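Something for you to look into today, if you have time. Could you write out one complete protein record for me, on any chain you like? The space below this message is yours for that.
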Amino acid sequence: MKKINVRYITQSAIIAALYVALTLLFQPISFGPVQVRIAEILCVLPFFTPAAVPGLFVGCLIGNVLGSNLGPIDVGLGSLATLAAAFLASRIKKWWLLPLPAVVINAFVVGFVLYYALGASMAGDFPFLIAGSLYLTASASVFIGQAIACYGGGLLLFWVLKARKGIIKNPLEN
């Protein structure tokens, strides 16, 4: 196993800072039942550097702490969803699949967070079928927003970085 070095930590910190900045800059559309989190364009960075995995996790964690009004469930589960998606993206070699983990995982996890935080108390008064449809609606909303950010902006960022070979170097390689 290669040692984590200063370059790795620096890249992670820069990615985290970018994620936080984009999340808060676009705060009105980064949170809530209908969201397109522009910071999710960074979901393609694990293809270029392993430092993106912790960077995206820490950035999402800080962004959720500073911007979310849904409480600890959003901070915890939302950030863990980003960590899982970033880790899976780091293992993907086909460019067109890179955004998929962020889209799918966040749709289910953040969809659940939204359902739980915004609709679960109301859904308890409804039969199971209606409560389930509220969860599916929340998940579908997140799925669409994630697809816009990750496939729209994320793949654009991927192609820009791919065309500028060497702009992001893997800090664990010499």
